[in-house]
Specification:
By secondary structure, the protein is mainly alpha-helical.
């Protein structure tokens, strides 16, 4: 039996390899904030993986807050600063927020600090969730607005009398 190729010696799943490379491209500025990510088909060809593997790689990056997806439009790079660190718009990964909420719900009453820090943490999580939902909704509405503007322009052009 021949030895495994160099890339097969790392036992991590292929979607993690793909996510690592895409993450590196984003953080090094090869894919800029606001720029559309390559399509699933392009990722499949680039990494030689299946459709679901490419989707899983994007899901990892989405959970990390590096990209966001607008249904029917595609995935886009989220804003981050030049040092590669996410900006103030960074959203903690879903698994982190879920873990944090679970730990807070398991905490016994009165475990918070005497100054009410337990209540402040709950309010912070709620505020984060609300702001994240609003940000996603604004992005979706913005994309819809651009699409509607294009459609209106096409209709205007189609209705103009031809000479």
């Amino acid at each position: 039996m021949s030895p495994a190729p160099e890339s097969k010696q790392d036992r991590r799943p292929p979607y993690q390899h793909a996510a690592d490379e895409i993450r590196r491209d984003i953080l090094q500025g090869r894919i800029k904030p606001g720029e559309q990510m390559p399509s699933i088909r392009e990722l499949q060809e680039r990494f030689g993986v299946a459709n679901m593997t490419a989707r899983s790689a994007l899901n990892v990056l989405r959970d990390e807050g590096l990209i966001y997806t607008i249904h029917g439009r595609g995935s886009f790079v989220a804003d981050h600063n030049a040092g590669g660190e996410p900006s103030a718009n960074y959203t903690a990964p879903v698994w982190y927020l879920a873990n944090r909420e679970e730990k807070q719900s398991q905490a016994e009453p009165g475990e918070g600090g005497p100054d009410g820090t337990e209540a402040a943490a709950d309010a912070g999580t709620t505020l984060t969730e609300v702001l994240t939902a609003l940000r996603d909704e604004i992005r979706a509405l913005s994309a819809d607005h651009q699409e509607l503007r294009r459609e209106v322009e096409e209709l205007k052009t189609a209705q103009q009398p031809k000479p």
